[in-house]
Specification:
A hairpin with a 7-residue loop joins strand 4 and strand 5. Helix 1 crosses helix 3, helix 2 crosses helix 3 and helix 5 packs across helix 7. It is built from 9 helices and 5 strands, in the order αβααββααααββαα. The longest helix is centred in the C-terminal third of the chain and has 20 residues. The protein has a 3-stranded antiparallel sheet with strand order 1-3-2. The chain has a two-stranded antiparallel ribbon with strand order 4-5. Helix content is 55%, strand content 13%. The protein is α+β, with helices and mostly antiparallel strands. The chain is elongated and about 70 Å long. It starts with a helix and ends with a helix.
């Protein structure tokens, strides 16, 4: 299949599907290599970007999805009259960060890191489709393991988990120091 024909086919499917499509699934359907699907999809994405179109093709790990260009959001909201998305509180962001960097992770591990019960935060993040159950730990009680979702990648505009910023040893030590100081203040009642 020629690249122009593959791009045309993929464009129609991405548009109609409304969700992400793994490159491997498309490759199997078109009887082409995964690399050909990725190349055609990346070319489509570049064309939308270079032509300043109202749609974009975004890569999410090894999948692609058609979506609205960010600069169109204000107009889209006016027309669609959609309610604002839920705001992520500091508590939710803290919990989400733990899941993103430590996944797969259990609720008890999150609570241990945060120093407080995190059931509500985990449940909210599942409700917002930012994290999901990714399995069960092979331990007594078989606790649920949580990890991030494709929606997490979409919301934060990152291509893959490897794109998350890495923390230096100095930053980690500074965070530990701040957490210890905060815990001590709470104990004293300041």
């Amino acid at each position: 299949m020629e690249i122009s024909e593959l791009k045309k086919e993929l464009e129609g499917i991405y548009f109609a599907l409304g969700r992400s499509l793994p490159a491997a699934t498309a490759a199997k359907a078109f009887d082409v290599s995964e690399e050909e699907v990725i190349k055609a999809s990346e070319e489509l994405a570049t064309e939308y970007e270079e032509n300043d179109r109202g749609i974009r093709l975004v890569r999410l790990e090894d999948s692609f999805q058609m979506c609205t260009a960010r600069e169109i959001y204000p107009s889209l909201i006016k027309i669609a009259k959609q309610p604002k998305k839920a705001v992520l509180t500091n508590t939710l962001l803290e919990t989400l960060s733990i899941v993103a960097y430590r996944q797969p992770v259990t609720k008890s591990a999150i609570a241990k890191i945060r120093g407080v019960n995190s059931d509500h935060s985990v449940n909210k993040l599942v409700e917002y489709d930012l994290i999901e159950e990714v399995g069960r730990m092979d331990a007594p009680g078989r606790p649920i393991l949580f990890g991030t979702t494709e929606e997490f990648l979409r919301v934060f505009g990152i291509e893959s988990l490897s794109s998350l910023p890495s923390l230096s040893d100095e930053q980690i030590e500074e965070f530990k120091k701040e957490a210890t100081e905060e815990a001590e203040k709470e104990e004293v009642g300041v």
